[in-house]
Design goal:
Blueprint lengths: L8 H7 L15 H14 L13 H14 L1 H15 L29 E4 L2 E4 L6
Antiparallel strand pairs: 1-2
Helix pairs in contact: 2-3
Length: 132
């Protein structure tokens, strides 16, 4: 059963071959289970310790997440998936940004309003006063 915030079969088929395999050592928690735990944590923003038990021990999910991040596994996987999708013609690289929707914070507004103060060098002057 695929739950909310988990990878679908199609997504897992793309990602599974790109996940590093352990050569030796103890039997591992399922890669899919751990990756789903990572996805769940990122989507929900919960603390690692609050990760549901269905994803395995939180320490395991965190350790693999950290190892994959440091080793560049996520970056490499994204590049591979993008390259294959681009080769298949599934990606439209046209991007458009409309600057009219970009907003500034209220404190970024000019301070030269009537009754406001102006900053001149390291000195704050009342409105209308000229620096000496």
């Amino acid at each position: 059963m695929i739950r909310r915030h988990e990878l679908t079969e199609q997504e897992w088929e793309l990602l599974a071959p790109l996940i590093p395999r352990a050569a030796t050592g103890r039997p591992r928690v399922s890669d899919r289970q751990v990756v789903n735990g990572m996805v769940y944590k990122i989507w929900t923003g919960i603390f690692w310790r609050d990760l549901p038990e269905r994803y395995g021990p939180w320490q395991t999910v965190y350790t693999r997440f950290r190892r994959y991040a440091l080793d560049g596994v996520f970056t490499w996987a994204l590049q591979q998936i993008q390259a294959s999708a681009d080769a298949a013609g599934d990606i439209d690289w046209l991007v458009q940004i409309d600057s009219t929707i970009v907003r500034a914070h209220q404190h970024a507004a000019a301070t030269g309003r009537k009754g406001g103060a102006r900053i001149c060098g390291s000195e704050i002057l009342p409105f209308g006063q000229v620096p000496s």
